[in-house]
Amino acid sequence: MLQALKVRWAKHLKKIYPAIKSISLNRTDVYILIPLSKLIPFISFMRDSSLAQANQLVDIVVVDRPHLKSRFLITYCLLSTHYSTRYYVQILLKDLQPIETSAFVFNSANWLEREVWDMFGIYFTHHPDLRRILTDYGFDAHPLRKDFPVTGETALMYSDIRRDINYQPVKLSQEYRVFTLNKTWT
Q1: Which of 64, 70, 133, 183 could form a disulfide with 114 if both were Cys (CB 3.0 to 4.6 A apart)?
Q2: How far apart are CA 93 and CA 72, in angstroms?
Q3: Do residues 165 and 157 lie in contact, with contact meaning Cβ atoms separated by under 8 Å?
């Protein structure tokens, strides 16, 4: 019974908001894919509409897929405490493509977008305070991107001679080893 109501709700939402690319449902969650240009109006609609009553932004999740044209899949996790439903509003984003901030729609987006900027390098336009939040201010890269080296690019080192802390390039003492089933370690 409840699932049939959700299917009817999804069809009704698609009629009301024709910009929706796709909607998929499971028992308690709703996944909605929308174009980037409609993100802020849509999450505002989801917050204000009695149809959804999404009153909390719980998280912003990013999946990095460097082999695809739209490199990032960004998911805004909205929660309706009234309907006990989670709405996952998803957008596709190309590399170096900016996105409009949602900090003016949900206050919690301020810190979440700062974390996304710091870890993935996704720039949010009109953000009130877009600074690094998890890495050092002098850090030059974005560590959760798939093309970031596992060992990092620089290391923070203390010099006994100069008595200060500085960045130095990472130097591996041994080359990576390649293992194949036909040969032993090389």
Answers
A1: 133
A2: 5
A3: yes
CATH code (residue 132): 3.30.460.80
Q: What's the domain range around 109?
A: 2-143
96 belongs to a structural domain: yes
CB atoms near residue 98 (< 10 Å):
13
Give per-residue pLDDT as tens, 65-91: 999 999 999 999 999 999 888 999 999
Look at residue 1 in the predicted model and tell me its pLDDT: 40
Q: What is the pLDDT of residue 174?
A: 58
Specify if 103 maps to a domain: yes
Residue 163: CB partners within 8 Å, gap ≥ 6? none
Domains held by the chain: number? 1
Contact 60, 109 (CB under 8 A): yes
Q: Which stretches in the chain have pLDDT values below 50?
A: 1
CB of 119 within 8 A of CB of 134? yes
| 46 neighbors 23 (Cβ within 8 angstroms) | no
162 occurs within a structural domain: no
